[in-house]
Amino acid sequence: MATTNHSPGALITIPARAGKAVSIRQGQAVKVVNTHGAQVVDTWAFSAEDVTEFMSMDATRATICKIRAALGDSYYSNRRRAILNLEEDTSPGVHDTLMAACDNERYGLLGCTDYHDNCADNLRLATKELGVDISWVPSPLNLFMNIPWTGNGALSFEEPVTRPGDYVVLRAEQDVIVAFSACPQDILPINGRQTAPTEAHFEVLN
Q1: How far apart are CA 91 and CA 93, in angstroms?
Q2: Which terminus of the chain has fewer CB atoms gathered within 10 Å of its CB, N or C?
Q3: Tell me, what's the pLDDT at 5?
Q4: Full residue range of the structural domain in which residue 196 is found
Q5: Do 33 and 115 contact (CB within 8 A), yes or no?
Q6: Is residue 15 one of the residues assigned to a domain?
Q7: Residues of the chain with pLDDT under 50
């Protein structure tokens, strides 16, 4: 496994329609910035010791009994251990824990007949740059994604409610590999209406 990390304080680009990953130690944090204000960032975390342990939206919802975490809440792994803590959030706090990462098959269902950039492949490529092979794509924490729900269980895909420069800070509760994808969705309005997907940024904090 590659051990090169990004230096604390360096602003790292998550390219539009692509992914990026970083290895951070327990106690460090990542600040994820919605640079232009309307970009969903799919986010995953894997135990640095064993990548078969990963941040699980299912386990998190069951543990905190919420669909959205609040400040101070932790996200939990599939082994029911705290993995990332939501330490700071300057956005309105609208993030999604329900939707699976987009993949090429998803875009096929939306009418695409050719290959479409997607978050599942972005995860695999980003972690491969660190020398890590991810065979299973967990459901991500979809930062800044606006999926409202109704009392009868209906869901919808809506535009983000974030502003340019809004950010979240996620602090590691174990040594982890954190991966991000600037979601390439350009059919549904999750990255804004009539707006092409854009880059986002992150910064490692001590």
Answers
A1: 5
A2: C
A3: 62
A4: 20-200
A5: no
A6: no
A7: 1-4
